[in-house]
Amino acid sequence: MKHFNASCLERSAFQTDSGHLFGFYHNAAGGMNPQRCLDQAEPGERKHTLDLTPKMACPFSVVVAIDFGTTSSGYAFSFTQDSEAIHMMKRWEGGDPGVANQKSPTCLLLTPEVRFHSFGFAARDFYHDLDPEEARHWLYFDKFKMKIHSTSDLTMETELEAVNGRRVRAIEVFAHALHFFREHALKEVKDQSSSVLEGEEIRWVITVPAVWRQPAKQFMREAAYLAGLVSPDCPEQLLIALEPEAASIYCRKLRLHQVIDLSVQPLTNGFDLDGSRPFDSSFRQGDRYVVADCGGGTVDLTVHQIEQPQGTLKELYKASGGPYGAVGVDLAFEAMLCQIFGEDFIQSFKAKRPAAWVDLTIAFEARKRTASPGRANALNISLPFSFIDYYKRHRGQSVEAALRRSNMNIVKWSSQGMLRLTQEAMNELFQPTIINIVKHIEELMAKPEVRGVRFLFLVGGFAESPMLQRAVQKALGRTCRIIIPHDVGLTILKGAVLFGLDPTVVRVRRCPLTYGVGVLNRFVEGRHPRDKLLVKDGREWCTDILDRFVSVDQSVALGEAVRRSYTPARLGQRKIIINIYCSATDDVTYISDPGVRKCGTITLDLPEPLPPAGAAARGGGGGGGGGPERREIRATMQFGDTEIKVTAVDIMSGRSVRASIDFLSN
Ligand SMILES: Nc1ncnc2c1ncn2[C@@H]1O[C@H](COP(=O)(O)OP(=O)(O)OP(=O)(O)O)[C@@H](O)[C@H]1O
Ligand SMILES: [Mg+2]
After folding, report:
1. Can you count the helices (H) and strands (E) in the chain?
2. Is the pLDDT score of 269 beyond 50?
3. Is the confidence at residue 265, as pLDDT, over 70?
4. Disulfide engineering: 500 pairs with which of 163, 205, 385, 594, CB 3.0-4.6 Å?
């Protein structure tokens, strides 16, 4: 049992010297709730906060969207004057045999002095051509986006490890990549624009997986600030878009001739439609659909309804998915190599012959894309000479002998120096990833909110895979129509541009988590547990009660707000800091319940209070306005956007209060 000796004030909240905040608040409808007190942690130290205090609207004449993918990234843009035309980025260099795509590999190369060297094909190829001795000093990063998803305590200090083992702050790695895109996009936009463009005329959009949590989204925003994409003083110049949501924005406009409908077509890419099913008209009426973004790193699912007549989108179920992207197939291939040649050998080969390893992954990538369920013959993957040679030196025997010894009957050796992967072997590489994807879509389709949905859009690079297409069609083809847009790998990018042009197109979203703060309520014997009892000035309080702002899977419309009022504790207090808690379920009562964790803080920077009208300044610590208990700071939180936003106002003076929300300091 804890004891406090400060008293709660009616109709206000205040911060004590011990750092606790007691308070009362307005509910979402704006009414005053019965007396409650808020728990409060010590003020935070860090200053990298997401500040979304309203500023003057920036006039945008261009929208540039960046799709920062796990395996490949790209940008596209559109001039607001001519928003029908979406310009895809120009290929700046390179390309791989057997791989046609307008995105570049997400690879970054830093010099031994940790300065930017190159990005994309250029980075990969330069690194590839370095002398192995020299390469050990360079910092090469690929597939680094996965780390952001897998790190549970992401902060500004989280590090990434380059191939050579050196560690760099992840925020810097992302900022280097974004800065590269900034330079390229700006140049291309300026080349295409007839007028002189100022930096602030550009609205930037960065896509992130819908399943990313607030810290990861804020991380991307901070990286964009660091990269100089936008200034933190103009936060609304940058939008964080959700990948499947962006795809959905694009998909809802698709016409029959722009899609492949798996239910009416054989399973190959690039064929013509017979047009026997009017996708258009039935889709517009059918108006509820699932979008599955099957990327390299994640599979991300969103369910939308098109609202008539405006054509806006309403999310029907919270975003779901997980790390089941196509790199799972690459990892399975690596695991297979380890099984045949030994894990220690593969690790040593990767470290000692990085260039040859890159060659091998490129060779596999091209073959992976031709894998198809209908294929009878084996797929050949050339083993680099360096692999064969290194194995011989390392193990004293040939790779052929290793294969024989491994009893891997599904992988054969071709005398031309190639691994021959039988259809069975390819299946084994794809199945674990594909099974996970299908399982997730099936689980989503079984939810009451989603049941009866008749359309499933498969988008993202992996959606091009006939292996995945066949598996999804087999599992779900009887339940719904499976639609694959042409240019399936670019749907997210195009949709992200459309989102930047009109972010209000998604009108209603579902909350991914329950959010709230800890408060004190009057203690009720029999209802509240004794270990939550707190006695203060002879009154009994129950501590740690979770005051919900929003509940998981709750529908929240854009612009819908949750309001709470707070009053500073002391005269001259300059800051109120409030802890935010979250939970994946809604059946929680206390902030100490299992599954509830502190996930962020709200900071209200209090301006100097104005002296009361007509009174001479009383001096001394800014206690004007009749004392701190009367000073009401109203915080307004919005949960309907892709990011959580907070604004605040000093009620008495009507002045806005600098309010920020931070999820990266935990
Ligand atoms: N025809 C194909 N068959 C199999 N896999 C494919 C095919 N085409 C593309 N892929 C895979 O799709 C992935 C790239 O897709 P995409 O560009 O959508 O991912 P990303 O945006 O980089 O990743 P994420 O969105 O998860 O961060 C790569 O792993 C690639 O191997
Ligand atoms: Mg992607």
Report:
1. 15, 36
2. no
3. no
4. 205
Q: Could you tell me the end-to-end alpha-carbon distance of the chain, in angstroms, rounded to an integer?
A: 26
In the chain, the amino acid numbered 458 is L
Residue 16 falls inside a structural domain: yes
The pLDDT value given to residue 361 = 92
Distance 242 CA to ligand 2 centre (A): 10
Whether residues 14 and 95 share a domain: the answer is: no
Nearest 5°: phi and psi at 23? -170, 175
Q: Are residues 554 and 613 located together in one domain of the fold?
A: yes
CB of 215 closer than 6 angstroms to any ligand 1 atom:
no
Return mean pLDDT, the chain.
84
The HSE-up count of residue 237 (CA atoms within 13 Å, CB side) is 21
Residue 73: pLDDT over 90: yes
The ligand minimizing its distance to the Cα of 465 is 1
CA of 294, closest atom in ligand 1: 18
Q: Render the burial of 117-138: b for 16+ CB within 10 Å, e for the rest.
A: bbbbbbbbbbbbebeeeebbeb
Do 22 and 518 meet the contact criterion of CB atoms below 8 Å apart?
no
Q: Which of 32, 38, 3 is nearest to 519 (CA)?
A: 38
- % the chain with pLDDT above 90: 61
Task: Establish whether residue 433 lines the binding site of ligand 1, counting it when its CB lies within 6 angstroms of any ligand atom.
Answer: no
CB 24 within 8 A of CB 11: yes
Q: How far apart are CA 180 and CA 108, in angstroms?
A: 10
Going by CA atoms, what residue is nearest to atom 25 of ligand 1? 295
Out of 130, 165, 196, a domain closes at: 196
Atom number in ligand 1 closest to CA 299? 26
Same domain, 596 and 645: yes
pLDDT tier at 286, thresholds 50, 70, 90? low
In-domain check, residue 32: yes
Tokens of 156: 């500004």
Which residue among 462, 468, 494 has the greatest number of ligand 1 atoms within 8 angstroms of its CB, and so is best to mutate? 462
* Residue having the nearest C-alpha atom to atom 9 of ligand 1: 461
Give the model's pLDDT for residue 520.
87
Number of domains the chain is built from: 4
The pLDDT value given to residue 92? 61
Report the C-alpha gap between 300 and 309 in whole angstroms. Answer: 28
Could you give the C-alpha distances from 254 to 28, 279, 280, 422, 530, in angstroms and in order?
A: 38, 9, 8, 38, 59
State the residue range of the domain holding 304. Answer: 246-323+432-509
Phi first, then psi: give them for residue 551, nearest 5 degrees.
-110, 155
Would 251 be classed as within a structural domain? yes
Looking at residue 299, which CATH number applies to its domain?
3.30.420.40
Q: For ligand 1, pick from 66, 67, 70 the residue to mutate: most ligand atoms within 8 Å of CB.
A: 70
